[in-house]
Amino acid sequence: MTFSSKLRLSAVAVSVLAVSVAGFALVPHAATKDAFTADQKAALNDIIHDYLMENPQVIMEAVAKHQVDQEQAQVDAMKDLIVTKKDALFNDAGKPVAGNPKGSVVIAEFYDYNCGYCKHAFSDMAQILESDKDVKFVMIDFPILSETSHMAAKYALAAGKQGKYFEMHSRLMKLSGQMREEQLQDIGKDLGLDVEQMKKDADSADVAKQIESNIALARELGISGTPGFIINETPVRGYLGLEGMQSIIAEERAKLTKKD
Predict the structure, then answer these.
(1) Can you give the residue ranges of the Thioredoxin domain (predicted)?
(2) Alpha-carbon distance 211 to 217, whole Å?
């Protein structure tokens, strides 16, 4: 067991003790600050000790519940932030969009071109966009894994300035191995882009500002890894697979139907 695990268990045990003491304090004759004598405190400690030794699963149940409660609190806090950041997430002109611009379900994804799970997620999103014409897909470059991630994001956004973001994005998500700048330029050439202009745009202040803005937004929302999704107002961390994504999309549509 790690030190942090021991610390959590100790904290839970203390909490159990505190709750038990509070319960005794509700008894009328034990309502004062000095309600327990030394012998009573010792007896109470023995009772709690014996109970936990006979029912050790209680500690693990308490730890598990505490973790679930913490995770839910984080999700709730993130949902509140999403509401305040909707325009930055879904309506920022600097963020490329695919699918139906007026789709009832809006999916924003934070991704890195060196992230293996992001590549799997791209395949899923391509299928969703092909089969579901009521989805708006907002693409947010979030290069955090390496310098080549940052380079790829710059070239993707530069391609977007010539109207070919999604095409470049698709090619980058299908690449394997270490990316090289010449390779990205070759992709641009294959897509019919003005490569010299793309190189200039990749190093432009506008592109740098967009990437910085994306990273700042992710930090504000508590997103620290990729892929990270926001589906309408629901945060989704990590890779869910095609069926998982389709299930959440269906849930979001059901919520919209209830509102109507």
Answers:
(1) 49-254
(2) 10
* Cis amide linkage into residue 96, ω under 30° from 0: no
Closest CA to 159 of 149, 171, 168, 150: 168
Range list for CATH 3.40.30.10 in the chain:
86-259
Q: At what angle do helices 181-190 and 165-173 cross, to 10 degrees?
A: 130
CB 159 within 8 A of CB 168: yes
pLDDT in tens, the chain (260 residues): 443 444 344 444 445 444 444 444 444 444 454 678 888 888 888 888 888 888 888 888 888 887 777 766 666 667 788 889 999 999 999 999 999 999 999 999 999 999 999 999 999 999 999 999 999 999 999 999 999 999 999 999 999 999 999 999 999 999 988 899 999 999 999 999 999 999 999 999 999 999 999 999 999 999 999 999 999 989 998 999 999 999 999 999 999 988 76
How far apart are alpha carbons 166 and 101 in whole angstroms? 14
Among 160, 158, 167, smallest CA distance to 208 is for 158
CA atoms within 13 A on the CB side of 250: 6
Q: Domain 86-259 falls in which CATH fold?
A: Glutaredoxin (3.40.30)
Would you list the DSSP string of 17-28? HHHHHHHHHTSG
Enumerate the β-bridge partners of residue 251: none
Backbone angles phi, psi at 93, to 5 degrees: -60, -20
